[in-house]
Amino acid sequence: MRKRLRKKLRLSEYTEYGCLVTMSLKKDMDEAARDAFLDHWIESAVEANNLSCGGGGSNERWSFFVALCGRGSVTEEHRAKLSEWLSGQREIESFTVGPLEDAWHGWKG
Predict the structure, then answer these.
(1) If we measure between CA atoms, which residue out of 62, 12, 54 comes closest to residue 37?
(2) Tens digit of pLDDT for each residue in 46-61?
(3) What gap in Å lies between CA 42 and CA 57, rounded to an integer?
């Protein structure tokens, strides 16, 4: 495959990586508190690190795939920052920050 097509399709040396973040929120949170926390997550942990995320959930269980804004990959440093931020939040009962995986072709969801 030609270099230009590999780049366009984000394959081989142009592969971009992201990670799956799952979290369980405390059961006693009402809808307004949950929405405020999720807004805080997106602003303070995701966007503050030049990342973007997509996903969702309901009530206590939430999953997000996190990728770098624009071209590029999430790094181990990004994963560490996300873990550090999540571990400092009292609204979270448990969380996981998954390994780096192909953001375009290999995400298992």
Answers:
(1) 62
(2) 999 999 999 999 888 9
(3) 14
